[in-house]
Design goal:
Number of helices: 1
Order of helices and strands: EEEEH
Radius of gyration: 16 Å
Largest sheet: 4 strands, antiparallel
Distance between the termini: 14 Å
Strand order of the largest sheet: 1-2-3-4
Oligomer: single chain
Low-confidence stretches: none
Number of strands: 4
Number of domains: 1
Helix content: 10-25%
């Protein structure tokens, strides 16, 4: 791979620092675009933590008829989110490379 991104999208929502949403599409895919939404919310964690806790909610929806397309994302998002968690906690990602 040459590092070129093979997807397109349009910004739907941008409310820093809480919400980011965009369409996501890849060439020749069915459906042509889906929606990805990240939302950060504060969590009342006073009983269990002395530091602030934030919940990241990821929603990827508007899938249509292509079950293979959905299955690919169902596998990829947990790996990406685990890598992000590692990066935030340790400063190093898991070295995720999507090659399913």
């Amino acid at each position: 791979m040459d590092g070129t991104l093979n997807w397109h999208g349009t910004l739907l929502e941008y409310e820093p620092p809480r919400v980011l949403s965009y369409t996501f599409g890849v060439p020749k895919a069915d459906p042509p675009t889906t929606r990805v939404r990240f939302e950060l919310t504060d969590v009342d964690s006073r009983d269990v933590s002395s530091v602030p806790v934030v919940r990241l909610r990821l929603t990827h929806d508007r899938f249509d008829s292509d079950e293979a397309f959905f299955s690919g994302y169902r596998r990829a998002w947990p790996e990406l989110m685990s890598s992000l968690k590692s990066l935030l906690e340790t400063g190093s990602s898991l070295g995720f490379v999507y090659a399913h």
